[in-house]
Amino acid sequence: MTNVLKQDLKIRVNFKRLDGEWETVLLEEFDTPGYIQDISEISKRVTIQDTADVIFRTFAKAKNNEANLAEVSKKLSCLKGKNLEVFTNIFNRQEIAQALDEYNTTNDKIQKRNIRANVSKILMPEIEKNVPYEDLYFNFSKFKYIYPDNPKGTKEKFTKAAAKILGLDTKDKFAMAVFQLYKDNVSKRSEEPRQAHWLLIKDLQGKVIGMTFISSKEIQDKLTHKNIIGHSGQILDPSVQGKGYVSVIKSVMVDFMYDNMDKETAKNALFATTCNELNENSQGLQYKSGAKPLVDKDGNIIIDSGKMHWYASKEEIMSSEIMKQCIERGVSYEVMSAVNSNGRFAYSKLLGQASRTPLNINMIKDTEYDM
Questions:
Q1: Measured between alpha carbons, how far is residue 301 from residues 293, 298, 306 in Å?
Q2: Percentage of residues in the chain with pLDDT exceeding 70?
Q3: Measured between alpha carbons, how far is 156 from 147 in angstroms, rounded to an integer?
Q4: How far, CA to CA in Å, does 223 sit from each of 220, 303, 307?
Q5: Which residues, in sequence order, are CB contacts of 27 under 8 Å at separation 6+?
Q6: Is 26 helix (H, G, I), strand (E, B) or coil?
Q7: What pLDDT score was predicted for residue 278?
Q8: What is the 3-state secondary structure (H, E, C) of 335-367?
Q9: What does DSSP assign to residue 264?
Q10: How many Å apart are CA 166 and CA 139, to the nearest integer?
């Protein structure tokens, strides 16, 4: 293979949701600034939801006598100062305290998830009102493009000027973070070969419901000194979570990456990703994806600046629990792209199979792919 996909990448994903209903989502290039506010609002909702989940788990551990509250909350800036008192008062309410007792005594995963969700709905308005942006458990940082506070920097002045032209509120740090991400994505599209993709996730009505990212760039890992690729990530609007979207989209992106990788040597590199040490949902996803956390010589998980580092070989990912589940759910996808002198091409593929089925581009409706 001479080149990886470079421009106008669009992937149509068909899959069976966890409730048994069939669903289709579109993955499209984040190449116009018109979607900055959409992703900004989604990232804000996800961040507040994740902060609520982490706070809930913190109080649940404390109530379960695993440690005292001060001990388990010391890594959470969202529980510092008066915030600790605010959320302690909430968890002292009779109905919330009872919910924590039920959470700590049941082994039913669905019941646990429902309890967390119900309590989180109570916590989220308080988080939005009381917790500053800097103290949120910031899940959006998985993309590593948080906008820096550097008021004296020329780059920041240029960025704010450009943001104002687009009608963005430059005080909205979520919007500025997404704007920085958008700019970086546009610059990456001109690389040769292209080694990273940032794609919007849309429903069939064209509504943006999230974003996904993956990189096939081969680099040396600073911790293991081994060659690594990957670092995939997804942000999905809370309104569509819990239906199996994340596992499907991650599986498709991984399959697509390995299928269109420019360097054969990169296929032998470890697939690497990170997650916050407090994000138990993400940790569960990593285990299901065939990855293992980095540990020291005694088998203790290494925490690097609050992050856990995960690694998996191509074989481990492609034979993982999450990949097997997606194959069983009949996941398939269609790819459309424009590449170098070969022009546009399209193919469909059933997840887990090596063969591709070429698609006639002239037979594909432009409205489906917005080409």
A1: 6, 9, 11
A2: 86
A3: 9
A4: 9, 11, 12
A5: 9, 10, 11, 12, 13, 199, 200, 201, 202, 212, 249, 252, 253
A6: strand
A7: 81
A8: EEEEECCCEEEEEEEECCCCCCEECCHHHCCHH
A9: G
A10: 25
DSSP for 106-139, written as a single string: ---HHHHHHHHHHHHHHHHHHHHHHS-GGGS--G
Give the Cα separation of 195 and 269 in Å (integer): 14
Phi, psi of 91, rounded to the nearest 5 degrees: -75, -10
Q: Provide the pLDDT for residue 138.
A: 64
DSSP 271-316: EEEEEETT-HHHHHHHHHTT-EE-B-TTSPBPEETTEEEEEE-HHH
The arithmetic mean of pLDDT across residues 31-59, rounded, is 91
Element (H, E) at 25: strand 22-29
Can you say how many angstroms the Cα of residue 144 is from the centroid of all Cα atoms in its chain?
11
> Which 8-state DSSP code applies to residue 226?
S
Q: What is the C-alpha separation between 286 and 254, in angstroms, rounded? A: 13
Evaluate if residue 140 carries a pLDDT over 60.
Answer: no
| pLDDT of 4 above 50 | no
Lowest mean pLDDT among 144-158, 220-234, 246-260: 144-158
**Which helix (H) or strand (E) covers residue 16, if one does?**
strand 7-16
Q: What is the pLDDT of residue 343?
A: 54
- Decide if pLDDT at 134 tops 90: no
d(CA 226, CA 269): 8
Residue 195: closest CA among 291, 272, 143, 266 = 266
Torsion of CA 89, 92, 94, 99, to 10 degrees: 110
pLDDT value, residue 137: 78
Token duo for residue 238: 């809370």
Predicted local confidence at residue 197, as pLDDT: 84
Residue with the bigger pLDDT between 76 and 212: it is 212
For the entire predicted model, the pTM comes to 0.86
pLDDT at 50 over 80: yes
* Nearest to 61, CA basis, from 48, 49, 74: 74
